[in-house]
Design a protein that fits this description.
Elements (H helix, E strand, L loop, with lengths): L5 H4 L10 H4 L12 H9 L8 H5 L6 H9 L3 H9 L5 H7 L3 H4 L12 H14 L6 E3 L6 E5 L3 H12 L3 E5 L8 H4 L9 H13 L2 E3 L10 H7 L2 E4 L5 E2 L12 E3 H12 L25 E5 L3 H13 L3 E6 L25 H4 L3 E4 L1 E8 L5 E13 L5 E6 L5 E4 L2 E4 L3 E3 L2 H8 L23 E3 L2 H4 L4 H20 L11 E3 L1
Parallel strand pairs: 2-3, 2-5, 3-4, 5-17, 7-15, 8-9, 8-15, 9-10
Antiparallel strand pairs: 1-18, 6-16, 11-12, 12-13, 12-14
The chain binds flavin-adenine dinucleotide and iron/sulfur cluster.
Amino acid sequence: MGKPTGFMEFTRELPGKKAVADRLKNYNEFVERYSDNKLNHQAARCMNCGVPFCHHGCPLGNVIPEFNDAVYRSSWEEAYDILRSTNNFPEFTGRICPAPCESSCVLGINQPPVAIEEIEKHIIEIAFDKGLVKARKPNVRTGKKIAVIGSGPAGLAAAAQLNYAGHLVTVFERDDAPGGLLRYGIPDFKLEKWVIDRRIKVMEEEGVVFRCHANVGVNVNLNDILREFHAVVLAGGSTVPRNLEIPGRESDGVYFAMQFLKQQNKRVAGKNPLSNAGIESNIVGEELSAKGKNVVVIGGGDTGSDCVGTSNRHGAISVTQFELLPKPPNDRTVFMPWPTYPMILKTSSSHEEGADRHWAIATKEFIADENGRLKALKLVDLEWKFTEDGRPAQFVERAGSERTIPCEMALLAMGFTQPQFEGLINELGVELDDRGNVKASEKEYHTNISRIFACGDMRRGQSLVVWAISEGRECARKVDEYLMGESLLESKDLNLIAL
Ligand SMILES: Cc1cc2nc3c(=O)[nH]c(=O)nc-3n(C[C@H](O)[C@H](O)[C@H](O)COP(=O)(O)OP(=O)(O)OC[C@H]3O[C@@H](n4cnc5c(N)ncnc54)[C@H](O)[C@@H]3O)c2cc1C
Ligand code: SF4
């Protein structure tokens, strides 16, 4: 334990952020780094609990008190070794994870929790700065070849682990660069893309092969893959957006969030925003801009929040966000006690930049002008009934609350329903679960087809980056066991040589 009295001496402090007016001028990350002193104080707050509930909260089982202690002692190599033992990509989770570990931190019972996510980000960035992140190769190659389809965090984690196990891994990605939603979903102001490039370079040095513009089941023959590879990991994500099929949906000005966000990420990357390799259903023939428009974002989650931040950077006249559900409470209630992940009100950095947020609202109609261009939304307020354990269950429309508001751009950010069936899934004929995701148990990750495994959002449905990494790692272990009879992954006997 770093400092026994640390939690009494120091309170939680997060690093500074650039002023809103400055950060809205570009798409750069704006969260600053801690000073050495502040980082030391934040790590000192960890109490090294007898039962560290932070482990329970983290899907990766990150060994948090141990790395906090190493950070407190400025033992950077040790901190990095502890962190990478459970997480292949702390530079992603350290930036964009909702940090369920912090929700279950014991200190959080009566004080603000330890700033675990920021500490994690500092460990990996310091490790890169100090040259501690070195490519590592397996001592022995098994001769087994594995295809990973999809290069989001699940596919990347599976590929990194399977490569460490000694297999020869090729990652197939239909888009023009690896990263999945990290690259072409999450905006640069949350995760600059050089962070992904830096990791891909390490993975390439370690021996992982990336094949982009390779849409398996469309321009890459599935049978060729099945012939060439000993096992296949499906990690294609959950990419079909939930639609809002109300009158006027076809109006010019109503778009899926991903059409808007992906274009912006391509623009920032200096690429043609309309080049939308592989996601045919998302192709729109025009460049989308929120500039000079009243924008309404429909949907209150991460995707909606990213639309808010992007619309403000475009120069929207107004940005409004609607959520169907009622406004969550500011603090935990009896129905969400510590150490559960609480469904409380979250204000993202994009919300801080300016958004008019409304809850318990349904959109009834998109109203277009005579040229078919969106000009207004028809709305109604909702009254919710709750279950006995406090969950919103049913709603009725509030009589007399129907009204219209001006809106020239509506962005649908209501989540994703399932993976895309056309191409890969249909051709493979793999079994799906009740929700339309690829069916494979959380224990085995094996689909109903021999040699074919699935992980990440394609298996569990729309989720989080930390879950995708966790699934990729677990799935890799199951593939390794399937091919070799046992797996040394995550054991001390795994023999890797630093290059
Ligand atoms: C806008 C947005 C913001 C988000 N923000 C956050 C956040 O802040 N924090 C967080 O934790 N989570 C966030 N998420 C969720 C998170 O991004 C996902 O849960 C995570 O990326 C899922 O990882 P994955 O590897 O399973 O799939 P994905 O990241 O979706 O990657 C799948 C990849 O597979 C490729 N692919 C699909 N089919 C084929 C094929 N046939 N051939 C070749 N390639 C194929 C796709 O092109 C894609 O690159 C956000 C999601 C969105 C949409
Ligand atoms: S629960 Fe919080 S205080 Fe306890 S070990 Fe984990 S991070 Fe430290």
